[in-house]
């Protein structure tokens, strides 16, 4: 099976519980098609560089996947159909990064600086 990173942006007016439900749905799609989700990171509500479908912010979620291509195709098909997802991107990687992603490390560093001030 191949390794992928799948990131999607959900509409800003959704509650975090709805975003978590979307993540669980994506996990179920992958599992039903013979793959597995290695790790999931919710990056939270972040500002966008420009408006996308009248949204200035979006909920960011990254999933690290170990899955066959057929499962990924089904996940992307379901993602395209979902009106709550503003954008998505899937990247094939050679190996998954150990520990938290760069976005999570950056967020932790910011929190650490605020606490020191």
Would you kindly provide a written description of the structure presented here, covering whatever features stand out?
This protein is of the alpha+beta class and 117 residues long. The protein has one domain: 2-Layer Sandwich (Alpha-Beta Plaits), CATH 3.30.70. Helices cover 38% and strands 42% of the residues. It has helices at residues 16-32, 69-81, 102-116, and strands at 2-11, 36-52, 55-67, 85-93. It has a 4-stranded antiparallel sheet with strand order 2-3-1-4, covered by helices on one side. Strand 2 and strand 3 form a beta hairpin. Helix 1 (16-32) packs antiparallel against helix 2 (69-81). 19% of the residues are buried. The mean pLDDT is 89.
Please outline the helices and strands:
Blueprint: E1 2-11, H1 16-32, E2 36-52, E3 55-67, H2 69-81, E4 85-93, H3 102-116
Antiparallel strand pairs: 1-3, 1-4, 2-3
Helix pairs in contact: 1-2
List its traits.
117 residues; globular; 4-stranded antiparallel beta sheet; 38% helix; 42% strand; Alpha-Beta Plaits; alpha+beta
Helix content: 25-40%
The assigned CATH architecture is: 2-Layer Sandwich
Q: Based on DSSP secondary structure assignment, what is the total number of beta strands?
A: 4
Mean pLDDT score: 89
Q: Rg to the nearest angstrom?
A: 15 Å
CATH topology: Alpha-Beta Plaits
The biggest sheet amounts to:
4 strands, antiparallel
Order of helices and strands: EHEEHEH
Question: CATH superfamily, called what?
Answer: Ribosomal protein S6/Translation elongation factor EF1B
What is the CA-CA span between the terminal residues? 47 Å
């Amino acid at each position: 099976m191949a390794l992928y990173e799948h990131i999607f942006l959900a509409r800003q007016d959704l509650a975090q519980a709805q975003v978590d439900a979307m993540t669980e749905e994506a996990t179920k799609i992958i599992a039903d098609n013979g793959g597995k989700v290695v790790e999931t990171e919710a990056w939270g509500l972040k500002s966008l560089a420009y408006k996308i479908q009248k949204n200035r912010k979006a909920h960011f979620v990254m999933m690290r996947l170990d899955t066959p291509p057929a499962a990924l195709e089904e996940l992307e098909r379901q993602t395209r159909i979902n009106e709550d997802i503003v954008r998505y991107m899937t990247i094939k990687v050679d190996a998954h990064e150990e520990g938290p992603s760069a976005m999570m490390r950056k967020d932790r560093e910011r929190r650490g600086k605020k606490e020191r001030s």
